[in-house]
Design brief:
There is one protein chain. The protein is mainly alpha-helical. It has a domain of 59 residues: Orthogonal Bundle (434 Repressor (Amino-terminal Domain)). The chain is built from 6 helices and 2 strands. A hairpin with a 2-residue loop joins β1 and β2. α3 packs across α4.
């Protein structure tokens, strides 16, 4: 059986699959877990580092390390040139998402190239 829920989203369901039974089993397991009686339960704990606050000098240094103009840096991060100018002037600070992107760039200078977000082309002297 195949059902289409949204444009482009197709889920194939086998005859043995029963949505009600699946939800019921999940709820029963959740209740057992909350009571502490679920066998072989695994709990993963995740620690998320606090957002780093970047100074204007640090933002300029990250951009310089990437060898990008403000315009290219803005397009890469998905923000306006005015936003980059404001960060580098110290009149505004990067949002949480932008701070995480800056942190990734600071830790891994090639992250955007490896994930095909930025493609560098070799320039030749004429």
């Amino acid at each position: 059986m195949t059902r289409t829920f949204q444009e482009g989203m197709v889920i194939k369901m086998s005859a043995e699959f029963n949505l009600y039974d699946s939800i019921k089993t999940g709820m029963e397991e959740a209740i057992e877990f909350s009571k502490g009686t679920l066998k072989n339960a695994r709990i993963d704990y995740v620690t998320i580092l606090p957002l780093r606050q970047y100074s204007r000098e640090e933002i300029k240094a990250i951009r310089a390390q990437k060898g990008m103009t403000q315009s290219i840096f803005a397009k890469t991060l998905g923000v306006s040139i005015k936003t980059i100018e404001a960060w580098e002037a110290g009149t505004s600070k990067p949002s949480g998402t932008a701070s995480r992107l800056l942190e990734l760039l600071e830790r891994d200078n090639e992250i955007f190239e490896r994930h095909s977000i930025v493609a560098r082309q070799e320039t030749r002297a004429i």
